[in-house]
Structures are given as structure tokens and as C-alpha cells.
Amino acid sequence: MRVSCDVANAINGSAILKFYLFVIGSFTGVRRFAIRKSACLQEVHACQRKVLCILTMDLTIRHLVIANVPKRLQLRIIPIHRWQYKRKRNIWRFPFVAYENGGGAFLVPYLIVLAFIGRPLYFLEMVLGQFSSSGSVKIWDCVPIAKGIGYGQALATWCVVTYYCVLMALSFFYLFASFQAVLPWTECDPEWATENCYSTTANLSVYNLTNESVSSAEEYFKIYVLKKIPNMDSGIGVPDWRLTLCLLLCWILVFAMLAKGVSSSGKVAYFTALFPYVVLITLLIRGCTLPGAGDGILYFITPDWEKVLTPDVWYAAVTQCFFSLSVGFGPISTFSSYNPFRHPIYRDSTIVSLADTFTSILAGVTIFEILGNLSYETNQPIENVVEGGTGLAFISYPEAISKFDSVPQLFAVLFFLMLITLAIGSASGLAGCIITILSDDLLQIPRWIITAVVCAASFLIGLVYVTPGGQYILDLVDYFGGGFIIYVMVIAETIAVCWFYGLEQIVKDIRFMLSFGLGIYWKLTWCIFIPIALAVIFIYAMVVYEPLKTDDGEPYPPSANAAGWLVAAIAILQLPIWAAYVIHKQKGTTWFLRFKASLLPAEEWGPKDPETKRLWLDYNKQFVRFSWIPNPKWLSNCKSR
What we know:
mainly alpha, 4-stranded antiparallel β-sheet
């Protein structure tokens, strides 16, 4: 192995780098890598086996490029990791949001939002990350005054990851419970069951079912697992020790992954990508055989056109789209920054967005089959068979598992292992984005220390969610810390990129990087449709906003709502605070000159490779007439490079 570097101390004594080079040389498929750190381009020639994928977010290797991976392997590598990162949000969050918003009445807006908001935003964030090889804060060197967007997104990401690991903790709790001789949620245990409980596996003719009847799976989750209280009048209680230990286990696993980095081979990636679909499709097939399943599916796919026109449904559809594709949170640009400069991200964005839609619909059909069956068994309307909320997946999926005639324990173990596998990947991606931002700003502190601090702080915050009133706080943080903040950040993001940096310039950058022009669909959605549509939906939703309510129908206490608005305000204030800081740091004799300079790209903006950046600067000097429809003549210079 021969290593050449323009900066002699760039890899001086780095044990982490030596470890990665050992792994690369021993297990992988490519002969050449380019490892970039700042302006230093290092070339490593390895005469070993084929590299499939090495993924790391360590600062020592700020950008890892797999330079000569065969295209057939690139297709296997790149989309799978991003696909894995999103799927639990679809399996867990999509069904309960759809249920709370009327099933088919939600599905129509959701598909429209995916087509005209989600997919364009996903591709835009991939472009920014790959073009600049930078994380979610440093990409704003293109519009320095908008740097606060990256920090606001980081705060929203932290809000989400703190409760996301709680969902993983619940999965661990159910996993451990699945090893019992009888699945505990299939019977009404006198220890926790009420008089309204009925067993999900018993002959229902022996029960006098009424509108007050509740399945054993629902009571097990709310009474035994969560110990949920009906309201927050007396506070939220103290953390449950069982869930606390599960939560601690989750953060230990996340820390281990982030501290050591992640490596993956093609076969393992294939297994972890396809295994969840095997489990989901198995549940889907079993659900189809249950009486009433067809009614549940019809409820899911039949739109209520009157409800489709309500702003709350559209607000929920956009929020779910953000969660589903992870746009607006930051990890997409961070992950894309590890791509080779010419990597075909247009293909990746298409694959991931289609796979995301398929996963959402698959999870939705599976859940609503079970809801249809519950409706049939209890003679209640589908919209009333269970209470909605974030725990719907922990009621409906176990309900479906309990319907298996043979070894339901095996299917339970496989299902919750699947949830844990997906959740660890998602939580690591979200937490890794925050850690990368902090590591970039705190270069003197070792990355593992920052990782430990972030994980420890997140664990302590997560204790709030494992209290008897924790699910109310989770809903509050999900609404304000996830949806509300990301709405504002995405609106600011599209305005900053397309109106300040310039639609013409970003399209020109894409032509330089990918060697093709974009059509009117991308330009129109980025520049006009997305910011206007999101602003209209957001403002209207705020006008008709109603405070969140507890299980007994009472609004959240004023203190809880105030805390939610405070979290949102802290994130949104990042925009003016960092804008003022950037303006203050600019060169200029007057405030106006400094303000004007803060709207222009920084000197650091552009491709990280010096030679590629030189070509890009030369390409920018060429006059190219902007048009909403791409002109084939514009591609001649790209193809000649």
C-alpha cells in the first residue's frame, strides 16, 4: 500500500485512519480511494479485494469517496443505507398519522405532497451535500446569512432522536416479553386488565362486547407497559425503571455504533434491507385472512373528499412527508457529502422516494387490516376501535402477531428485532448529524467525547418520555420539535437556496456535477410551489390551531404548551441570531455592505477537490442562458470535460 499526501501531518498517528485502511485493505472491493480532509487530497492504492462500502462520520476522515466502485455495486450500496435509515418512520409513524386523519382522507394529500414537495426537497438536499462534500451546517457557505437553518435543523433533529430511542426502548421491552410461553398481550391479566378488557385470541362470543370494550393488546400497552395516566393535572410522574433500563441499552448501542463508525458489506446490506419486508409481507398475508380486513383496507384507500380539503390533513401530510424522507432535518445532506462528486444522485433520489412510498403504503395496509378486524370483532366503527397516537403500532402489530396459529412467539421476536434494527440505524443517523455539527465546531475535543456527551444528554432527556405522562410529552415534542420547526426551516431553506443563492446558479451547479439539465418540474417546485404551498398551509394551520388534548379530552396544561412553544422559538431564533453573527463577521465599512456580502457564497463554498473546484469556477465564467426547459446545447461543455 502506498500513501501520498500534500499535507504531511494530515494522517499523522491516526489510529482510526489506520483501522479503516486495514478494513479497506482486508475486506473490500475497490482499488482506489480518495480521502479528503480540508484542502488535502490523499490517494490510497490498495491491492486487495473489492470494497463494497465503508461509511464513517469520523472527523479524521471527513470525506470518504469510493472512487472506482463498479456501477452495479454503487446501485447496491448507496440507496440501501438511506432506505434503511427511513423505514421505521414509515412502519411506526405513517399508520398512526393516517389513522388520526381519516385513512383515505390522508392518503391522497400525502401522495400529492410526496410528488411535489418531498421528492424535490430530497433531491435538493442530496445535491447540496454531494456538491460541497459538507454537512448540514457547512453547506450554508452558499448563503452564509442562512447558517442558522443548519443549527435550527440540528435542534429539531435532537428533539426527534430523544423520543425516537424511546420507541426503540419499547421495542426492546416487547422483544423481551416475546420470549414468554404465552404472549402477555394476548390475555387479560388480572394484574393490569380492567373489566372492559377482552382477549385478542379468545372466542369473542363469551364476551359481552360494547363500545367500552378494549383489546388486551391495547390495555397491555397503555396500562402495563406505559402505566399511562389520563391527564397531566398531577404532573407526569417518575420514570419507569423497566423502560429506563431499555432506554439505557438503546443509547449504549447508539454510542457504540457512532463511536466506532459503521462498515457494511453488500450481503449484510441486502439482508437488513429486505428482511423487514419479509416480516411486513408475512403480517400482511396473515391480516388478509382475518374477517373484516377488507373493510379496513377500504377505509385506508377510500378518500373522504370533504376531509381532504381541511388544512389539518394537509399539515399532517407535509409533516409526515418530512419525517418519512428525513428532509429538513439535515442527515440527507450529511450522508450525501460522502458520495463521489459525480455520483448519480438523481437515480438514488428516485429509488429512495419510490421505496419510501411503497413502504408507507405497505405499513398502512397492514395496520388497517388489523383495525378492520378489530372493528368486525367489536362492532365498532374503524375510527373508534383504538385510540390513535404514537403507540398505535405497538397495539396493532402485536394484535396481528397474536393471530398467528403457530409459534406466534417466533414472529413476535422477528418483528421486534426488525423494529430494533431499523430504529438503531435511524437513531444513529439522526444523532450522528448532531455530533458531526458539534465536531466541526469543536475541533479540539475528540469525537468520541462529543458522542458520549450527546448520548448521555439524550438519555437523560429521554427519561421524561418513560414516565406515566411521557406519551403526552412525546406528542408535544413531536408536534413542536419535529413538525413545527421543520416547516419553518424548510421554507427558509428553499428561499435561501433558490432565491438568494439563485435558482439559475444551483441548476448550473447540477449541470456541472451531473452533466444534465433539469426540467421545469424541479425548477417550478423548488422556486415557487414549495415555499408558497408550505407557507400557505403553515399559516392556515396556525390560524386554526387547537391545543393538544390528553386522553380525557382536556387540553394540555398551559405550562406544557408553553414549553412546546419555547422549544420551537429557540430553534426559529437560530435564524436571526446566526444571521446577525454572520453579518457582523463580514468585511465592510458599513452595515449594508456587510449584509450584502453575507448573501454571497463564501470562498469555501464549492467542490472540495481543488482541481474540480478550479474547473467549476471556470465553468461559472461561461454565460449560460437560463430557461425553465433544459436546452441540449448547454450540455456540450459538461460532456467535453
